[in-house]
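So, read this over?
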Amino acid sequence: MRIAYLINVYPAVSHTFIRREILALERQGFEVDRIALRDSDQNLIDAEDLRERSLTKFVLKQGSLALLLAVVRTFFTSPLHLMRSLVLACRMGIRSERPLPIHLIYLAEACFILNHTRTNRIQHIHAHFSTNSAEVAMLVHELGGPQWSFTAHGVATLENPDYTGLETKIKKSKFTIGVCSFARGQLCR
């Protein structure tokens, strides 16, 4: 099975646990594509982090023209999926702390990632963190991409579920993981 791991920023010194998770899946025979919305601005020195950086596809490094072309491509290949995803992005943006245009950028990122998942035969996307990476994974699926899941971390996200669209993300994901019993309780709530 080919899986894409979607993370907002990767690799980062604090994301060693994600690297270990990816490597454990690869040892079990899974193929894992690493996709990050942006590169870490950290000066990485660990050889494993540098290796991960070389294996990671960075969405925003592609530039705004690449994202715009991905939206246009999606419009011509899947217009109904794009309209449905646009409605979902707007719904997410209305209740969010972040302004609506940011959620439209998430949709453009999802269009770009959709093409990557099709080209590379990705069968599942797993997002780490319940913030924008989970929303982008959800939008990729809404666009007609593969099933998706996410791991929820962080007290702030779980304490403000309305602002992050957490309920919508949970309902639309294949499965959701809480990193501890507290997170699990908040997700169930």
Summary: The mean pLDDT is 92.
